């Protein structure tokens, strides 16, 4: 068989369009994602956090807004890291100059480099450190919110019912998928009754609610009472 006919088209690859899942919503580049310890899945091209939806599903707008927020916080943290380094170097330089002026010019003169370099550098260092901590918290909160919005969207679309489905649909790692579905089911229990989620083994570990058991017992009691009254009435009817 050497025939290549029957619809074989050697130029087919030129007509192929990248699937929408491959286009990064942040940088518009065509590329895949890779796992990331903090951002879950990131663009191979620009490093921004991404959630790849299954075929035919666009990114949920609120989910994407959260991803953008996480990306901004991540970039801000990078800048603060630089500021922290500058602060550290500035403080070290200031102390060095202050010691030199202390040696050659006396205590009063040594205060000049101290106030000019050491004080602002340490202030910058402390500010950068605390702002980095809050940026890290913001990244984590935004990533969680983005995944919850995306998973809720997939649940509503009927594409995801449990953690395994989420792994299959988005390519996320199973541990994170379980975490997202658990957060979502807790959220659903609190205020969104229209979202029904099967959170897998986690739900099975929740102890039975005693109030529910009591309600059931009361219902059973009422039932037997009612049937006893009915039986009684029937018996009376028959004797009369
Ligand atoms: Zn990108």
Bound molecules: zinc ion
Strand content: under 5%
What distance separates the N and C termini?
97 Å
Number of strands: 2
List the secondary-structure elements in sequence, H or E. Answer: HEEHHHHHH
Structural category = mainly alpha
Provide the gyration radius in Å. Answer: 32 Å
Continuous helix count: 7
As laid out across the biggest beta sheet, the strand order is 1-2
Q: Globular, elongated, flat, extended or rod-shaped: what is the shape?
A: flat
The helical percent reads 55-70%
Mean pLDDT across all amino acids: 84
What would you note in describing this structure?
By secondary structure, the chain is mainly α. It has one domain (19-232). Helices cover 66% and strands 3% of the residues. It is built from seven helices and two strands, in the order αββαααααα. It has helices spanning 12-15, 61-105, 107-156, 163-170, 174-191, 201-204, 210-239; strands at residues 33-36, 40-43. Strands 1-2 form a two-stranded antiparallel sheet. The longest helix has 50 residues, at 107-156. The radius of gyration is 32 Å and the shape is flat. It binds zinc ion.
């Amino acid at each position: 068989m050497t025939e290549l006919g029957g619809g074989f088209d050697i130029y087919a690859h030129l007509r192929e369009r990248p699937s929408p899942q491959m286009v990064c919503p942040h940088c518009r580049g065509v590329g895949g994602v890779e796992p990331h310890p903090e951002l879950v899945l990131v663009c191979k091209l620009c490093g921004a956090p991404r959630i790849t939806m299954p075929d035919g599903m666009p990114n949920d707008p609120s989910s994407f807004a959260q991803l953008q927020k996480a990306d901004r916080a991540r970039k801000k943290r990078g800048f603060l890291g630089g500021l922290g380094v500058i602060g550290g170097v500035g403080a070290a330089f200031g102390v060095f100059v202050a010691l030199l002026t202390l040696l050659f010019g006396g205590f009063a003169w040594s205060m000049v480099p101290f106030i000019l370099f050491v004080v602002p550098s340490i202030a910058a260092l402390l500010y950068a450190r605390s702002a980095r901590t809050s940026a890290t918290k913001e990244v984590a909160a935004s990533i969680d919110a983005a995944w919850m919005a995306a998973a809720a969207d997939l649940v509503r679309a009927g594409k995801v019912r449990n953690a395994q489905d989420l792994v299959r649909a988005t390519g996320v790692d199973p541990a994170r998928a379980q975490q997202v579905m658990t957060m979502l089911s807790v959220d659903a229990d609190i205020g969104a009754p229209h979202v029904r989620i099967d959170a897998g083994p986690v739900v099975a570990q929740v102890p039975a609610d005693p109030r529910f058991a009591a309600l059931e017992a009361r219902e059973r009691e009422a039932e037997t009472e009612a049937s006893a009254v009915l039986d009684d009435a029937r018996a009376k009817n028959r004797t009369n």
